[in-house]
Amino acid sequence: MDNLQFIQRLYNGKNCYSDSMTAEQINLLHVPSGVEAIIEKMIAEKRIVFLTGNPGDGKTFIIKALYPDNNDIYIETDLNSISDRQLSAVMGKINDCYENNKPCIIAANEFPFYKLMNHIRTEYPKMYEELSGVKKNVLFFGCPAIELKRICIVDLNERNLLDKDRCVVKSVLDRFTGLLKPYCASNTILDHNVKALTHPLVQQQLLDIFSYISLSGEHFVIRDILGAISYMMVSCTDSDNEDDGYYYDALFAGNNDLMRYASHFDPILLSAPTWDEKLWNGEITEGWQFDCPQKWPIEITNGTGSVEEATQLFKSIKRKFYFENIFSKELAELQPQDFKECISVFIKINEDPKRIKRMIISSMNKLFLSSDEEKDKLRVWTSHSFDLSRTSSAAVSTRYIDCDALELTYPSPAPWLNEMEFTPAYIVLRSMKHPDVRLEIDTDLLRSLIMIKNGYPVALLSSQYEQMVSQFILSLCAAGDSRDYSEGEIILANRKEGTHKTMRINNNKYYFGEGEDF
Description:
Layout: H1 3-8, H2 23-29, H3 34-44, E1 48-53, H4 59-66, E2 74-76, H5 84-99, E3 104-109, H6 110-123, H7 125-136, E4 139-140, E5 151-155, H8 169-180, H9 188-196, H10 200-213, H11 222-234, H12 247-250, H13 257-262, H14 273-281, H15 297-302, H16 307-324, H17 329-332, H18 337-348, H19 353-368, E6 377-382, E7 394-402, E8 406-409, E9 412-413, E10 426-431, E11 438-442, H20 443-453, H21 464-478, E12 483-484, E13 490-494, E14 499-506, E15 509-514
Parallel strand pairs: 1-3, 1-5, 2-3
Antiparallel strand pairs: 4-9, 6-7, 7-12, 7-13, 8-10, 10-11, 13-14, 14-15
Helix pairs in contact: 6-7, 8-11, 18-20, 19-20
């Protein structure tokens, strides 16, 4: 099997399993990540390494790449293949390593790993105590709670291979383009794909799309990435493929999980009337980094072609423009703003936590009153509706939680996992005095709060966000974090109209002030 055939088989999953690969093929595909360095360090320190994760995330592949000849180390590459009868013997070998200061590596998916832990708890309680402690502290907030002793867990569920700073996509692209260059002479589209995917502009546009995907909240494994990139590059060599197979079309035409999510960021979804008209009419002839399109949609509609045929050509040209034209920046800036700002939050949360916290509080307040501009107080609203399927139109606020009573933080990988590709899946807003009172703000909720900040109507969002925030606020109140407004203020809100009035108590008398005076 030559390199082209090998890569062809990756996108349909046939070659994504290391069990079917030769040592040479493993070396061809092996793109080092931070995990390999962690494992080598742990083994050098004679620790017991549990490599856990999901199917397809490369556990066995990593082990085979690092230790093709495992004569000196006890290695279990797939705990799934161990029967219940064999499990006792495996535990005995692990315990022997544990007690005798010898290293070993155990690769396991989540369920087999938990089953192993349950058996270890009964048979080897000392080892279980250390193992469970490490498991609980793979991620931490603030300061690390434990120091490693004999056992280390490397959880690939926490690895984000699309992490913006350490994305493996570029490494895979560079590896595949190098392997495919000898086959370009016989296929002009493959030649175009290989040349384009080594160009800085194309790579940057592609990596930006993958960075948006990284904030989807989904966990994409190395099998997904290899499948997507191989299909994008070599679908043009498949005689059964009805499309031409240019990479900019193929990326959004595949059917694995990663490519299906990439379709959310397909350039054809970006509305830019001026550019669209020029691309339809063939008026953009400058700025192309490779070749200018030879045919334009208007030529089809002016001739005997159908609108459907012209539309398909337009979609392909628009994608080509997005990736290959130096004037595409304006189009790229139309990618969903909430994703861009979400990336910014995760990047700047250490540098500017106060500003981000105030933005989040402001958007939470707007969930209940769209005109509210308060950023330093998280309001406590009381409302009632006999029909739970409807949002109550009136609400009253007499108390609030001060911004300084809340802390914004996020999970960090344990110190031994610092080299692993990691992007937090969520941030946490919690009470300073009662850290257990917390709200996990995942990327879905964070994007919704960013959309509210940017003027998106709250009424068009799911009611689940208001319910989540309400429960968090009630928990803060129950913990004693709320306080009364000064001068006995009471805020009366008309949520349908987005207006409010403020009632104050002074000298035992009630005074009303219009909302705009508040």
